[in-house]
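Comment thread on ticket #2218

A.B. wrote:
> Attaching the input chain for the structure job we discussed in standup.
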Amino acid sequence: MRTLKIVSCIGFTVLTSFSAHSQIAISEINYNSDSLNSPGDWIELYNYSGNSVDLSNWKIMDSQPVNAFTIPGGTVIPANGRLVLAENFTKFDQRFPGIPRIGPLSFGLAGSGEQITLMDQNGIVKVQLTYDDSLPWSKCADGMGRTLEIINPQGNANDPSNWRCGCVMGSPNAAFSPCTSEVVIVSEINYNSDSVANPEDWFELWNTSNGVVNISGWYVRDDNNSNVFQFPANTVLNPQARLVVFRDAAAFAAQHPNVSNKVGPFSFGLSNSGDCIRLYDNQNRIKFTVCYSDKSPWPVEADGGGYTLELDTLFNNSKDVCSPASWFAGCKGGSPGKAFSPCNASLPEDLLAGISIFPNPASEILYFETEKPVEEITLTDLNGKILMRFNGPPDNGFLNLSPLPGGLYILKIRFREGFAAQRLAIVR
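C.D. wrote:
> Ran it. Output below, let me know if you need it in another format.
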């Protein structure tokens, strides 16, 4: 039975057509490849049911109905199986030798966003979705070397939060698995410095492995292929080592004189409105990509506020490195060349005299009463990740803790005289 669902939103209406029990999802999209490593456009279909589905004479098309590909007769996806439709067999086979695919598609997918429709042999729409290359969709798949992978194939395919960035080059004809090949990653980004204490743009690389990685002759690019920095000879990352890549040697040294594990300068800047950092080996094979934005839910404190983007201290290669949930605002000035540690870890608790914070343990609300000026309040997890920050005491005299899960936290309060801290338990 074909049904039609109308979802009204502010300012526009989204019309989504689907069929009950379609069993098939569009599970991965490669719509604008990294130009140096392009397999051409491709789409992966996934049969999430417990039964085989015959796709003979089904059609897949973009926003122009004339751009339609008819799936050949006898094409069956087994239960929990996948099927890749490729635009260009030559390019696809070069990058993914031996991976089954059908096609070639007679059309490509737009880099600026596109509607994809899958309909059965009777013309009934089974899946219809529209992706985009701008927030709230991630930019990671827009020429940056990653794909879009669906999170819940039975969920809303038009919901950007139901998609994640895949690994570099994607995983055609396979379920998502941790990006174990991405060994050297970007772990901190300083893209729009404090205007007073300005080290200029820099980012940090981290060798997440327990082996030595020689990145001599490797390349870094932002979202523009013409902006290139090549690592000099003898650039070696020891196990778990970090390396800062700076734009301006003098400006960086003035703010971080004790950082010696650094290299540069790179000649291009990181955009204040959002950018990508791509890492290539010495044969121009893409190894890693991260894309950030200055818009919430990305940490806005990093956009000119003197803070950096720090990779989540609990990040692992199964998580989406291009998701704002994987990043937080680090300490003032950042922690270039070393692992993040809690800001001002040694804090005198006697400064808490004259301030009342209750209840502790707390549930939904934490109240403040103070007799002395408070300049800043931060709430962090036990790894130092900043979860809440306030300039001065909260206007209403309390903090709303309801968005946070139960557990132990650190509450830090900055006065003119210094810092104070105490543990806070949240119970649910």
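A.B. wrote:
> Thanks. Noting for the ticket: The two ends are 43 Å apart (CA to CA).
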